[in-house]
Design brief:
Length: about 375
């Protein structure tokens, strides 16, 4: 309700009270209470409504005072057509003389408080020769954070063209403020498992479960967690409506066998190492198995003609045993890392294992 409506209500109530007093129907004290009640009712909607404080125009480059006023007029005029109240730059400076150089969150919050505004609008124009860059930001007065912005530019243009850019930027911010006036949209996001990272339009906003107010429109929501396949979804958020989303994340398929097979592989590998060592000891020794070193199998000096030749057996067995031991250790390290993932996140030992054709690699901090 604007000032004109408030005055109209005052006139109506004044006439009603006057008639009541003249006829003796209402006592003067009761009439005063009625007027106070009318003032409170008229003021209540204005307090709850959005209110945008417009900072003086910031200019980098050469721009005459007349052109400054023209560009600022486009901004103010564009915002005035919205369903919210505005505080003109002159009133902002009157309330806070330092608002002219305001360009930081602390200053935005101070200006919002001094002007009783919910939001602050800052416009900046950069002029280089005949090139204009126009940037307009909408700032949350409570936090000092930028909630919406518009950036446009033109090359080899004049003030009239720059004014059109300013009017376009004002229309963009007006749309955002009108949407906020309908009430905040809320995104409520849950995931299974929980504690998954959530990004909205590429920006990290927290971990699940999460409830966050957002401006309406199309949003790209992505939920991810280490060890799970990330899920991305496009949603359309309606102004003033709570949107609930639930995500189920699937584990990344493991390329390694399960933990029991790690023990089996390790055991066979160790046995293979023992077998290789045994064959290595037998190499070039007398082959006396089953009476093979008797009779004609002895030479003139009485030595066995047949000897153990295990060189290739030792080599093959050693390679197979080393591969199995490494694979078993890799499987056990990886599966044990899943149990202690929380501890690993605090800086304890982690391991990454890769298995390829004929090779196994283990990387990490130990």
């Amino acid at each position: 309700m604007n000032l004109r409506d408030v005055r109209a209500w005052h006139r109506i109530w004044a006439i009603a009270v006057g008639l009541a007093v003249a006829t003796g129907g209402v006592a003067p004290s009761a009439a005063a209470r009625l007027v106070e009640g009318a003032e409170a009712a008229a003021a209540e909607p204005a307090t709850a409504a959005l209110r945008a404080a417009i900072l003086p125009l910031s200019v980098e480059g050469e721009l005459s005072e007349v052109d400054r006023e023209a560009l600022l007029g486009e901004l103010v005029g564009g915002l005035q057509r919205g369903s919210f109240a505005i505080v003109p730059p002159a009133d902002v400076v009157a309330a806070d003389k330092d608002a002219i150089e305001c360009a930081a969150e602390k200053c935005y919050r101070r200006v919002a408080k001094s002007t009783d505004a919910t939001h602050v609008v800052r416009a900046r124009v950069v002029v280089k020769d005949r090139d204009y860059d126009v940037r307009v930001e909408l700032v949350d007065g409570a936090t000092g954070a930028v909630v919406a912005k518009s950036e446009e530019g033109c090359e080899i243009c004049g003030v009239v063209d720059a004014g059109s850019l300013m009017a376009s930027a004002a229309a963009t911010l007006r749309t955002k403020l009108d949407a906020l006036a309908k009430g905040p949209s809320v995104l409520s996001i849950k995931s299974d498992p929980g504690d998954a990272e959530v990004t909205v339009d590429g920006q990290i906003v927290g971990v699940t479960p999460l409830e966050r107010p957002v401006i309406g429109g199309k949003k790209i929501v992505r939920v991810s967690k280490e060890g799970y396949i990330a899920v991305e979804r496009e949603v359309t958020v309606v102004d003033g409506v709570a949107e609930e989303l639930a995500f189920t994340l699937e584990k990344v398929p493991s390329r390694l066998p399960k933990r029991p097979w790690g023990w089996v592989s390790l055991g066979i590998g160790i046995a293979g190492v023992g077998a290789a060592a045994t064959f290595a000891v037998l190499d070039d020794r007398k082959f006396s198995v089953g009476g093979a070193c008797s009779g004609d199998n002895k030479d003139a000096e009485g030595d066995c003609k047949r000897l153990w030749d295990t060189e290739w057996i030792v080599l093959g067995t050693s390679l197979a045993a080393a591969t199995l031991v490494t694979l078993g250790a890799a499987v056990l390290l990886t599966t044990s890392g899943k149990r202690g993932r929380k501890k690993a996140a605090k800086g304890k030992a982690t391991a990454k294992v890769g298995v390829g054709v004929g090779s196994v690699s283990v990387r990490g901090r130990f």
